[in-house]
Amino acid sequence: MTRCWWGGGEQLDYRSYHDEEWGMPVVDDVRLFEKLSLEGFQAGLSWLTILRKREAFRQAFAGFDFRRVARFGAREVELLLEDASIVRHRGKIESTINNARRALELVEEEGSLAAFVWRFEPEPAARPSRMTHAELQGLAQTDASRALAKELKRRGWSFVGPTTVYAFMQAMGLVNDHLEGCAARPRVEAARDALDRPV
What we know:
With 199 residues, the protein is an all-alpha fold. The longest helix has 21 residues, at 90-110. The radius of gyration is 17 Å and the shape is globular. The protein has helices at 12-20, 29-42, 47-52, 54-60, 66-69, 74-81, 90-110, 113-117, 133-137, 143-154, 162-171, 184-194. It contains twelve helices and no strands. 34% of the residues are buried.
């Protein structure tokens, strides 16, 4: 199978993630919140580190059900700081709890997290006509990710810079950044074409 360069190595975790998840469009609020949270935890680390700890993160953060995480307090923060199975970074832990509370507010105002984030899906004309390695290397952040990051920050979210947000958009299928010739690209494009965008 032909894959994007990062998903074709010996790391089975990456290969499975590339083939089955990355770029497939997601409209489930809990999965969207999980990915935004994990992208925040990844800052300064490799995605492989976070991917290998993902199940432990899910255990620690109540399956990333933001309604439950929003109720975490000082006691939960201290317990999480003692949990060696996750990344023990006070700022990132407190950010995840803060963002869960902001997610509740956003859902109250906008109807769903999915309806909000999918508004920032870029128009086809704003995307490269062919997704080559060189094009992808130049897409650490985009106008769409800067706009989404700015709006999240305005609403009080943290650890949501434009680069973090673009990685989230790539993973959750708001864009299809599989390279031309990658076997996953047409599957992702078909799923995006068939998607009933949330409103």
